[in-house]
Amino acid sequence: xxxxxxxxxxxxxxxxQTGRVLVVEGDAEVQSELxxxxxxxxxxVDTAPDGAEALELVERSMPDVILVELELEGMDxxxxxxxxxxxxxxxxxIAIASSGxxxxxxxxxxxxxxxxxxxxxxxxxxxxVVERSLDKPxxxxxxxxxxAEAAASFPTxxxxxxxxxxxxxxxxxxxxxxxxxxxxxxxIQGETGTGKELxxxxxxxxxxxxEGPLIRLNCAALSESVLxxxxxxxxxGAFTGAVTRRSGRFEQADGGTLFLDELSEMPLSVQVKLLxxxxxxxxxxxxxxxxxxxxxxxxxxxxxxxRTLVDDGRFREDLxxxxxxxxxDVPPLRARPSDIPLLADYFLRFYSEENGKHxxxxxxxxxxxxxxxxxPGNVRELQHAIEQAVVLCEKELIGSEDLPxxxxxxxxxxxxxxVPGVTLAEVERYTILRTLEAVGGSPTKAAAILGISxxxxxxxxxxxxxxxxxxxxxxx
Length: 476
Ligand SMILES: Nc1ncnc2c1ncn2[C@@H]1O[C@H](COP(=O)(O)OP(=O)(O)OP(=O)(O)O)[C@@H](O)[C@H]1O
Ligand SMILES: [Mg+2]
Known about the structure:
The protein has 476 residues and is of the alpha/beta class. The chain has 3 domains: 4-140, Rossmann fold (3-Layer(aba) Sandwich); 155-329, P-loop containing nucleotide triphosphate hydrolases (Rossmann fold, 3-Layer(aba) Sandwich); 334-471, Helicase, Ruva Protein, domain 3, CATH 1.10.8.60. It is built from 21 helices and 16 strands. The strands form 5 sheets. Strands 2-1-3-4-5 form a 5-stranded parallel sheet, with helices on both faces. β3 (65-69), α4 and β4 (92-97) form a beta-alpha-beta unit. α3 (51-61) runs parallel beside α4 (77-87) and α15 (339-354) crosses α17. It is globular, with a radius of gyration of 28 Å. The model is unreliable at 1-11 and 409-415 (pLDDT under 50). The structure holds adenosine-5'-triphosphate and magnesium ion (MG). Residues 196-197, 261, 301 line the site of magnesium ion.
């Protein structure tokens, strides 16, 4: 690596760890000198002469380390630091000051710089500071990748606190992880109690904004005018009672995620303002003219079909199209029957511990009842049913009589097997798991009933990631 051009720099040894560095420097000569020094030790370098161009590069190339001179023309270095840090909190920021004044350094650190260098910059100091600064972004990226990899190493029965082994949930996890890494607006659809809020939190936690705020607002809980000022804030005197200026949820969520729950209930007038934000990333506070720009990813949830609301004139079609780009559909519990025993066990363990009880599991009959019930209130209803059963149960095993659910009408086909509507693979899975449930988890007995080999059952269970321990913890 000791080429003649490298030898011209005193620090021309390859750095131990290298990364992507953005140099924001107005003086062309200084800029190319810094670029040459950093390239010589193995970093990939982008350059920008001013703050505006640099912000675009921050979004586009997501650098690990950003070097910025504080006396930039136009947007100064302090303002750049503030905005760039909100865009990419995982990066390391190094401010370059012309004088060694403590005031400047403190101001730079307060604006978001991690370190400060003073001119003239010695090449060996530059190499060292940039290399040290790589720890933070590499650590952040590794953490995100490790989480994504752990979640993507299917089959798994859980992602964070979200239980879901059914193929439809596995597909949802994968899609959610892909969506989380992008900057797109995400729309989460699903019946009440299916876990939309959990998915929204996971989108935030698996994104590069996970260190930023996650702010939630329920659009159904507020009247039209209150909702608008809650979201966008208001200026002093905007309406009676607006005695001071107040920032809204969008400003509070700067650098993070805004979760708009029950989006279908948002009035049309507020929808217009939301659409403008999604298109232009800016808005005005209620009663104000100043345009506010924030860096916020919107995640919205709804349990109503927005298409139908569009047809009824209650939801804007342009907003609907804007939101439809990345949709996460959370399936109802009855469409993923194999998750019912997993969720039941998960909640049983949780509530047993919380209440200091020693409830170990369910009787075969109780498991049968859980599987046969259509769960109109989805996971929330199941959670409450198990909580109640655990609290009231005085035995080691919860029996079907302890469960606050009505046995389904035997005349009615279980909803999860509505045909057409399910794939043959799902019918196979459902049939095998239900038969196993009924015989207490014994593959030999289930094989005899189903007329297939025990090996086929074992092979399928392995394929689906269902183990005896997580599905039938009580069986020997
Ligand atoms: N897959 C899951 N694993 C574990 N717990 C879950 C799962 N899905 C939902 N829950 C739990 O069920 C309850 C309801 O979930 P959540 O509030 O996310 O539903 P929702 O879809 O937002 O409902 P709603 O439409 O009524 O607002 C919560 O307590 C949540 O923790
Ligand atoms: Mg919800």
